[in-house]
Amino acid sequence: MGADSGTQVTSAATEEPSRREFIHIFGATIAGAAGVGALVPLIDQMNPDASVRALSTKEVDLSAVEPGQAIKVMWQGKPVFIRRRTAEEIKMAEEVSVGDLKDAKARNANLPDDTPATDDNRITGGDAAKHPEWLILVGVCTHLGCIPLGTAQGEVRGDYQGWFCPCHGSHYDLAGRIRKGPAPENLPVPPYTFLSDTSIRIG
Ligand code: FES
Q1: Which pTM was predicted?
Q2: In which element (H, E) is residue 121 found?
Q3: Which atom of ligand 1 lies at the shortest distance from residue 170's CA?
Q4: Domain 54-202 class?
Q5: Which residue's CA lies nearest to atom 1 of ligand 1?
């Protein structure tokens, strides 16, 4: 009897953890499945499909832009100015000393943050190739976000022949650098790459 009781006690003691283990394993399996279920959309979000990537970049054909002209395109909801500079305009921009600039940083997404705002550093794209004719800028005034004038034919270009923001009178030069007025920074250079001599991809 004593031995039987001992056996029964031992049996009950071994069955009890088994049920707990089952519940634990079952619970862990459900939680694991839920975790995997939650992970799938998370991974999906981390791998945007081609259509999303296409929205974040923009290819622009430059073949119709003549020297001295500029165009405006939209990229990620923002205007981007693209100016084809003449040889004289390039020379004027290159002659400006960084020490004379209000903002000495290149503000070029293709270069490190502390790069100086030489003309050379303002026309460098993501492939590090130099295309001095082509100046590519995000066309949003760095003061309070107005869109500066100077891209369309006949628009006022300000005292430095680049762009003029009529909201509070900021003047940008032929490399899009702030030279006069309340704007604190140069117009930013977006990430871009030349795909050929006459086409670029922004973004
Ligand atoms: S927003 Fe351009 S000068 Fe104020």
Answers
A1: 0.76
A2: helix 119-122
A3: 3
A4: mainly beta
A5: 144
